[in-house]
Every structure is written in C-alpha cells, then in structure tokens.
Amino acid sequence: MKVKTVKVISKTALETKKLAERLAGFLFAGSLITLTGQLGAGKTTFTQGLGKGLNIEKNITSPTFTLLKIYQGDLPLYHIDAYRLEGLSQDLGFEDYIESDGVCVIEWSQFISDLLPEDRINIEINILEDDNRELLITASGEKYERILDKLCIQ
Prior knowledge:
Elements: E1 3-10, H1 13-24, E2 32-37, H2 43-53, E3 68-71, E4 77-81, E5 103-107, E6 120-127, E7 133-140, H3 142-153
Parallel strand pairs: 2-5, 2-6, 4-5
Antiparallel strand pairs: 1-7, 3-4, 6-7
C-alpha cells in the first residue's frame, strides 16, 4: 500500500479550518478521515472547517458524550468521537458510517483502530511551543493520495 505524508503548520484556528474547508472540496461519498492529537489540539476545529466545506449550516461540536453526530450538507458528515471507547470491544455499529454515503470523521481514532480500513486520510495534530499547530496529513491508498496531491497543489 502506498502512503504519502505532508506537514502543514497552522498559526491560527482559522487557518486550520480553511485547510479543512479546502480538503472537503476533494472528498467523496465514502471518504474516511481519522484525527489524532492531544486534548485541545484542534480535532473538532478541523472538523468544523470540513463541515463548512461541505456546506453544513449547523454548528459542529464535539460528539464526546454522544459518540456520533450526523450533519447534512452536500454530503452527510458522520462525526465520531472514540475518546471514551479505549479498551471497549463491543460492536457499536460504526462500520455502517465508515465508507458509506457520506464523509466519516473519527476523532481519537487510535482507540478503534482495529475497526478501520487501511485506506484513509489520517491527520495527526500536534501543539507546538508557540501555540501553532503541526498537521501531519497521511494519505493511505491511491484515492486518498490523489486527494492529498490536489490539496497540496492549491
């Protein structure tokens, strides 16, 4: 499997949202984006930008307590927060949303990594000393590599 990674430095939450909004323009039904990073790194901020790019009008918030929120836009956005699922082995039905008719975004995806297909975009968000964010965007699989190439060209 081919894997490609690019690094982006974001200086503000708005820059993070704008990057995600641009990415949304290249996504398709069945797209999977996984987000990792410490608490407060900007995972939900990134998802808010994706929502704007998908023309979602509803305010996007973290689904920490509900595990899944669904938003309607140009494509449905399935926003999963797996933070509370570490070590849990029961079937929660997330497979129904992964590679489905919309875009699936999973925060804290490392806690359900055994459920995830290899082909996806993973974004690791790290907080830097100057409060900037480093986004390591990894595309696994051909269709996601093409998306990453398009994202980097523009």
